[in-house]
Predict the structure.
Amino acid sequence: MTTTAAPTAKLHHEASRQARVIRRLRRNPLAVISFSVLVLATFVAVLAPWLAPYAPEQTDFANTFSPPGTAGHLLGTDDLGRDVLSRIILGSRASLEVGMLAVATALLIGVPLGLASGYVRSFDTVISRFTDLLLSFPFLILAVGLAAIRGASLGNAAVAIGIAQIPGIIRVVRSDTLRLKSLDFVAAAVVDGASDLWVLTRHILPNATSVVLVQATVAIPSAILGEAVLSFLGLGIQPPAPSLGTMLATAQQFAARAPWAAVLPGVTIMVLALAFNVFGDSLRDALDPKGSRE
Amino acid sequence: MTSPTQTHLGAPQDVAPVLDVRGLSVTFTTESGTVSAVDNVDLTLAPGEIVGIVGESGCGKSVTAMSLAGLLPRSARVSGSARLQGTELIGAPESVLRAARGQSIAYIFQEPMSSLNPVLTVGRQVGEVLQVHEGLSRKQARARAVELLTLVGIPSPLQRVDNYPHQLSGGMRQRVMIAMAVACGPTVLVADEPTTALDVTVQAGILDVLRELRDRLGTSILFITHDLGVIADVADRVVVMYAGRVVERAPVDELFAHPQHHYTAGLLVATPTPGRHAGTDRLQEIPGLVPVLSTQPDACTFAERCSAADAQCLGSAPALSSDHDVVALRPDHLVACWYPCGNPSAQHQGGRA
Amino acid sequence: MKPDTDVALEEVALELEDLVMHFGSVRAVDGVSLSIRKGQVTALVGESGSGKSTVGRCIVRLLEPTAGVVRIGGVDVTHLSRRQMRRHGKEVSIVFQDPAGSLDPRMLVGDVVGEPLRLQAGRISRRDREERINEELGRVGLRAEVARRYPHELSGGQRQRVSIARALISSPSLLIADEPTSALDVSVQASVLNLLADLQRDIGFACLFITHDLSAVEYLADDVAVMYLGQLVEKGSRERVFARPAHPYTQALLAAAPVADPPRQRARKAVLLGDDLPSALDPPSGCRFHTRCPLAFDRCTAEVPQLLGIGDGDAACHLVGPDGAGPDVRQTNSAGSLR
């Protein structure tokens, strides 16, 4: 019904895509919480050496198996008297490092392959078979193989995990490339003489960033979990360097006596992975042009 | 193409309308604020009448149609009244609406392919409507389906009844949709851009089917489109909408011959008609864009694009009426404008177009 | 299929000789020949499945024709890559139908319009490019500041203008307009049609206007070519085709397009062709239109009619004589009528 007496009506404005995505994220409580956790985790990881109250390898045989709340050890100590909190802080940093490194490797290799595969039919047959090959290769065997050849380390763990992520990236980028390839603005560029490389880098890739972003956000937790598994099995980060996985591995033996030494790193892994997953899901929903589910 | 337009002059006042909409308003709450899609719309549909709602995208014509049977999403707030043969539909409980849908009011939409189930034969789908609403057996339903397919002009209905949707062309699928819609003999058929996605040679056939339904079954049709040519072909009366409001309402001949609202006049001169060529003629453009409004102001929303507008148009919303100082209009020709175009029908006192 | 021997080669902006485009077994375009003189607008009319858009895509080399010849400005470009075509300087541009999908949503409007300049062979400085972009935007009636906006901030009509600006910035001699107004509202269609008419008159490019909208054709085109299921059924000047259409399909098309004039529309007779559209996978034998033609007789099923000259233009119908004389399907009682 008629309301305002203003001479011009209040128009309804369509916000820019970025603003819309950010607004949707802000309104989603899960997105806000998970994002805060991630920010906190990044903060902690970056400032780890200064935040950790003790050096992670620092032993204290007088204070082994101290429960959380003991003076000077907020989260208690493990079998060698090392501060659990410090080890968790530095272990998280290591996990995030591996996660980021692995996903970066996967993106570096997977995105170009996905673009090529989606755009050029002849590449597609080759790359798709390659993807199938990677998918059928058990990730752990790969990690074991790499460890055997090059020795177990953070770097090798990252590579093994990264390789395991590549097929997912290729799939997602390929499917978006296929969709974008058929749009008129690509045809317009082709008609004007654009080379395949020009089209891929200037038209397809910028429009595919949202799917890549979502995929990466969801790939990181698998990488973190992957690192935990590898370190647990002794194929990743080697003790005494702190890693959430190695902490779990060593805490196994005395779990009854000092459960916090196993539970706390486990919970940390879970929280990190969950935060990434939840944020990734919220991001995917926010980026969906169809609008929020009302 | 004889049309019963002659019989509908002044008809709405004599016979009780099957559909009576008053003060219909719809607002949507979206994530970027409210949108006022429909504002205070009045319209009536007499028995056996085809009323065309014409307007461009964003004018609210589809929203108006969908609001009648409660087909809008939860984010829509609908107010006003819509009486279908006496039963109030706006705000009615879901049970009332469900009973009305299919039986009293039916819809056909633009894209028949997305409304038809690809894994069922068309006979099954048409028959299903009958089985659900009228409790017919499978055999009876199939027989009725063949009858309906014949009614809508599908050739070889006995073979076609066992076809799947993908085996039919666009025009035939639309005919199947129409058959499903009228299976239970609804009083009102709402056709939302039914021919927009079809080729023009197929369109003529569909419009014919609708006219046939009106003649044979007495179905009243609310025909929504942006195509003025189609309106000229099929409608008895026309409702012109702009930015959510009705700006003009008149019998079809009168509207095209003597448009009173500047938007209607603008649409008519913007449409290329036979005989006009770029060398000698120029299509009259309407400058500016259709606004999307958060709230409807007390002003004419077309004023900013209108060459005849002045301060009064910007300061006060004109009412939809046939009573204007500037020009004497027939009682069935209403316009919401402070300065209607003028040049009314010569015999405006009880005359015939 | 007579070549334009009486017109000098450079005078012909576009020439198609027996163009064929098959997608596997789908015979989308099956032998289309036509020519457009410099500075003329030819409309290619057809409904869905006619192959008209495919013809457009073959001309700009988005598709490689299965057979036939495409000549732009006298140069055979049928099998050239787009880069080679560019080198020849025979510019052809295309404007698409859907304003939503034809502009890269991640690119600024200015960059969209300027992209062809960056893709062309010669070097052009940034400043010169910006100047050209502003010039072109002005020519299509958009303010220079639009260059700094994103496509989603513009209306459908504005986006179509941007597409046109982009298409014209490389000064093409031939513009392919593939249903440029079909996705727009009526009032916006008018402004875009006016714009195309003005630009075409001022700049003088030849234009292939692909559409199904006959009223737009009458407004904009000098010549008309009508396609049905991959083949041409009629060609001729606009005046002749609209005043005296020779082919039954053309007649049906003209009869079917409703006019925005109720008494006149009521007085017209509809020609109902029936909805059973044949598919390009398995086109009807003989004349492809015979399954829907009210006047079809036995010869139509057996023999493919040739596109023969009828004075002003050509027609492919067994019932049309060399002088253009033939039946008018609008006068006869139409097939498939419900009445």
